[in-house]
Amino acid sequence: MDEDIKATEAKEASVVQNDKDLLRDKRACEIKFDQEMNKNMKLISENNERALELRQKKEDIEAIQEQKDKYQAMIESLSK
Question: Can you tell me the distance from the alpha carbon of 58 to that of 52, in angstroms, rounded to the nearest whole number?
Answer without folding.
Answer: 10
